[in-house]
Amino acid sequence: MAVATSDSILARSLITDRRSTNFGLKNEVCRGKVVPCRAGGKVKGKGKGRVEVKAAVQIGGLEEIKKAKEGMGLDVVSEEELREKGFLGMRKTKLVCTIGPACCSLQDLEKLALGGMNVARLNMCHNTRDWHRDVIKKINQLNEEKGFCVSVMIDTEGSQIHLLDHGAPSSVKAEFSIKYCVWMAGIEVGDELVIDGGMASFQVIEKVGNDLRCKCTDSGLFLPRAKFSFWRNGKLVARNSELPTLSKKDWADIEFGVSEGVDFIALSFVNDADPVRQLKNYLYMRSSRSTRVLAKVESLESLQKLKEIVEASDGIMVARGDLGVEIPYEQIPTVQEEITRVCREMNKPVIVASQLLESMVEYPTPTRAEVADVSEAVRQYADALMLSGESAIGPHGQKALSILQMASSRMELWSREENRQSILHQRRLGVSLPDRIAEQICNCAVEMANNLGVDAIFVYTKHGQMASLLSRNRPYPPIFAFTSDNGTRMALNLQWGVIPLLVELSDDDMEANISTTIELIRGKGMLKPGDVVMVVSDLTPTHINSTAFQSIQVKTVV
Ligand SMILES: Nc1ncnc2c1ncn2[C@@H]1O[C@H](COP(=O)(O)OP(=O)(O)O)[C@@H](O)[C@H]1O
Ligand SMILES: C=C(OP(=O)(O)O)C(=O)O
Ligand SMILES: [K+]
Ligand SMILES: [Mg+2]
């Protein structure tokens, strides 16, 4: 049993199982009838054709439309939500759940999926690859057999140092005494040993061989395989930045993730853009291009190189747990808001992670402060919120997920009622004319959609670019993103307000795509007469003589 008391104790036996470091840790493991009405002019550009704004279009007489395939497209959770709450009531903020021993059975995973989990996160710091493989298998099974659309993310261990599992059930609180053994050269008497960013603290009072004799100065929560850091005069001593971002074990975990076809790889302790580029090159070579690379911002260095990291990656995680160890706590709220803003400007999805509903790791109700924190992340328009221990080891994971769900929906409604979206200013993103056209179409489409009060935006996308450019403007109506690429579908799961659907799309017949997809949703009884849909298309030419066709059309269901 792990116990920490305010007595002096001999540091022994719980040695970290991480890689070697300069301070000498062991490395052992470890997708009608159309009456066009032109309102826009021609835009000439390299490789691009016309931009049309069509309005007052009616949908009807759909005999010519080929029947949408039954069961294709919309996932069961979005379908249910749409039936229950209507288009505007659909939740925009995405939810990520860390899977651990408390939620890894097929039944538990199904409950999380039904509860709105968009992405399942597997933290490779914990458990075995066989255990993670089993979870991925169950998620794939649920997606295939029950019609869910849950993406899988693996999260690398990175340069973290853990204590071994102390063997206690989940957490040990209050007075406890710890027996651990550390073999660290650079640590001096007087240094402070901080567990999990301050959950418990010790002071080194004596070095005995490779052991450190420590005195507990702050007793507290001690999770199995807790992380720790050493401090001297208010500064970190044992720095993670001295460790490689991608260790041998991380590469083996990445290889595992690629072979299991995971959708996201989140990189821990990224300090600059290099490891992100390195991994993206590797994925390119492995023909695993649909795997998206997320960079976790959790070090001081990553904050200093934020823009280059955001530029290089496919998304960001504000990993507040470790970030709160590296920078003073009081800076976390402003840093989070800044990262969230930079990501939206640069059109990369951002996850706000760690301690959102931390007290629910133990208790069945969140603190009001936690609910306020969750709501603040939603108010900042983060793409996604993440549960860690709340779902992985806590007994109230499903309830924690429902609280994220309710808090997000509530704040999204408030933001809409307050017309907060209108104050979002977008920095110019694209450099080439075609990119700038796509960007302008999306900016204008969202402004029109909000002003006209359309019910839904439909967009057709190969790599997710148009869908994410729309999402970036945080529109009031949900964005139904139709794609024939499953990798794109799974990646869009992380983007604010985007409901990704897998459908067969024609490369050169946009009207057929529009008709098919509208019929798909109407066929399910989810589009009623009077509903207004905005259709945004950006058809890229498939051969040299074909023209691109970009349009914004507003269609009323009859
Ligand atoms: N796959 C897993 N197997 C066992 N325990 C896990 C797993 N994933 C997470 N946990 C537990 O849930 C806690 C919270 O998860 P997370 O925040 O991802 O990890 P960490 O605390 O290491 O940053 C971990 O400390 C660990 O105790
Ligand atoms: C999400 C985080 O990373 P991990 O749980 O892997 O430490 C964090 O530090 O907040
Ligand atoms: K990790
Ligand atoms: Mg971390």
From TrEMBL:
Domain Pyruvate kinase C-terminal: 439-539
Keywords: ATP-binding, Glycolysis, Kinase, Magnesium, Metal-binding, Nucleotide-binding, Pyruvate, Transferase
Cofactors required: Mg(2+); K(+)
Gene Ontology molecular function, alphabetical: ATP binding; kinase activity; magnesium ion binding; potassium ion binding; pyruvate kinase activity
InterPro entries per the UniProt record, alphabetical: Pyr_Knase, Pyrv/PenolPyrv_kinase-like_dom, Pyrv_kinase-like_dom_sf, Pyrv_Knase-like_insert_dom_sf, Pyrv_Knase_brl, Pyrv_Knase_C, Pyrv_Knase_C_sf, Pyrv_Knase_insert_dom_sf
EC number: 2.7.1.40
Protein name: Pyruvate kinase
Species of origin: Gossypium australe
Lineage: Eukaryota, Viridiplantae, Streptophyta, Embryophyta, Tracheophyta
